[in-house]
Amino acid sequence: MPKFLWSIEKNRALKEHSDRHICFEDIVAGIDAGGLLDDIEHPNFEKYPNQRILVVAFSGYVYAVPYIQEADGSLFLKTAFPSRRLRRIYLPGEDHDEET
Question: Cβ contacts of residue 54 below 8 Å, gap of 6+?
Answer without folding.
Answer: 27, 31, 36, 38, 39, 64, 65, 67, 75, 77
